[in-house]
Specification:
Largest sheet: 7 strands, parallel
Helix content: 40-55%
Number of strands: 7
Shape: globular
Distance between the termini: 50 Å
Order of helices and strands: EHEHEHEHEHEHHE
């Protein structure tokens, strides 16, 4: 049901919000006073469980399913959230496709899938938020989740890396073109604690070798997202939340060392 409390609370849409980093971001936003729209592609149980937890904390939260690889679904998502939540003030583009390919076996369709999910969907959601804010006479913010790998590039995970590089440039261009109505920021996490598809043993060594001797946590990234959303002086730049990992270049991704 829409928020009928006079829209005094801000509303944030978190894509890929049902699990892992997205979940941590949603919880941090709720703690900071935001109502939260939790987007998921195929995790309804996780999304609804998270919304129930958020509601138990006095937060208005609803789950919204969409396949961001489908441009029409991506384009329509914000309007669905507005209808369900009453308004939207911010979008956190956290959902991301991460599949491996390399220079010697790049797959054109996989590259296009990365582009649709990791670049085009965030741009479409940003455009939709800008139009919504203009109609309301309001201002808001978008935060794009990037990757510290862009500051220590190597050719592994080529299609993924190219898509995140495009999103980094889109962050700059959108910040230039949509100000002052919309601020657009990037947050680039470092190598995080092991998740699906990540070899924990391989990850542990480069984490220990980093300047601060340990990996960033999901809470560190979520705090940075909240900071970007609430600081009115920030736009068109990226905060690296990697505990210094970008200071140490690697010729290969840690999973291939």
């Amino acid at each position: 049901m829409p928020n009928t409390s006079g829209l005094t609370r801000r509303v944030a849409l978190v894509t890929g919000g049902a699990r892992r980093l997205g979940r941590a971001i949603a919880l941090s936003l709720a703690e900071a006073g935001w109502d939260v729209a939790v987007h998921h592609r195929a995790s309804p149980e996780d999304a609804h469980a998270l919304c129930a937890e958020l509601r138990s904390r006095g937060v208005h939260a609803d789950a919204f399913a969409a396949d961001l690889e489908d441009c029409e679904q991506a384009r329509a998502l914000l309007a669905r959230v507005v209808q369900g939540m009453g308004a939207v003030d911010a979008v956190v583009n956290n959902a991301s496709l991460f599949e491996h390919d390399a220079l010697d076996r790049i797959d054109a369709e996989l590259a296009m899938r990365h582009h649709r999910v990791n670049v085009l969907a965030p741009v479409l959601l940003t455009q939709a938020l800008h139009a919504h804010l203009l109609a309301r006479g309001a201002r808001g913010c978008v935060v794009n989740l990037l990757d510290q790998k862009l500051w220590t590039p190597n050719p592994d995970h080529l299609s993924y890396t190219l898509s995140k590089a495009a999103l980094r440039d889109a962050t700059t261009l959108l910040a230039q073109g949509l100000a002052p109505v919309l601020r657009v920021m990037g947050v680039a996490p470092g190598r995080m604690p092991a998740g699906p598809g990540i070899d924990a043993a391989r990850l542990a060594q480069p984490q220990r070798e980093g300047p601060l001797g340990h990996a960033p946590g999901a809470g560190d990234v979520a705090d940075a997202v909240c900071f970007c959303l609430t600081n009115p002086a920030l736009t068109g730049t990226t905060i690296l939340v990697d505990r210094g990992q970008h200071l140490q270049a690697r010729s290969r991704d840690f999973s291939f060392d």
